[in-house]
Amino acid sequence: MRLQWTDSITGAVGYLVVHTLRAGLATGGTRMRAGCTVHEVEDLARGMANKTATFDLPVGGAKGGIDFDPKDPRAVEVLERFCEAMRPWIDSHWVTAEDLGVPQHLIDEVFEKLGMGQSYHAAISRAADPVATLERVRKGLNAAVDGGFLLGDVIGGYGVAHACLAAAVWRGKGPADTTVAIQGVGTMGGAAAYYLHEAGMKVTTVADAAGTLHCAAGLDVPALLDLRDGFGEIDRSRLPAGIEQLPRTAILGAEVDILVPAAISYAITPDNSFDVRAHVVVEAANAATTPEAEAMLAARGIPVLPDFVANAGAVAWAWWLLLGEVDDNPQNSFDRLRTIMHTKVALLLAAWTDEGLTPRESGHRWADEPAPVAGPVVIP
Questions:
Q1: What is the pTM for the complete model shown?
Q2: Reduced to 3 states, what is the DSSP secondary structure of residue 119?
């Protein structure tokens, strides 16, 4: 199902695409970027359906997207009007969250202003005691973790980091002997960089909208993350010494073991796929690699760990939290996600090695056979 909305004040165009409803529910974030199209939102909704099925979540997939610059001072008002227009779906069927250009705290502020408490509203409203459930969810999202972060902000990137660590294991290399480049240091890419650095992997190259930063000896990731603004861009005027500044496009050609596109969709295309020098690509951004580019990488022996596995930790965790399967103890969430991610990535890469199946092909086999949903989803 496709809905298109036009903002009468700014002319911004927004879309909601519901790919699959399961038990009357679909889940997927809301993004905002200039140039967002309905085709992009369709791809993302399809990807969300793959994520929920792959991780045996009892919901379908959907996605929201708004063609508007998130840096525009009117952006929050546009997001508010979009959410109000989509209210019939948001009230009962569509559980949304952060995505590119829309941080979780912002969409939660909009939902609270509209009287819906928090962006998981459609699920929380099904609980016997919605007020208590909302409080439990907020405690989980706002649980403090090392580095001065909140659990809800970093759990997706933590999952991406462990997809990378599992790929390193498959290659027979320890973290200290593995190099990684990350395109994008926002919520997802920044958290992935942090946890890879904590694990001892050498993050040599990162990129944001302003360009690429490189240090062959390894970047001081926590120091760089402290220099970010609200849009995930690093203040170049305060860079530590010894960092080389390169063009933004240089990130794809970084000489590293693992490349993590964690910024925009369709970052790797047929036009630039031959620039990739990494041995493995781990998709932290949704739809980061076009199908044609992925086929070209596969022909060169470079597997792509698909987004609906590698970056699905955020949505899987959100539903574990909603369903009461994890709590506000971060270690419980980290332990569960780490175990599941390593298992899934190992299976994908074993099929690549043993059967010549791309990780996406293997992942689609899981997604095409979701666990059955018996009766209504019960939110405790």
A1: 0.95
A2: coil
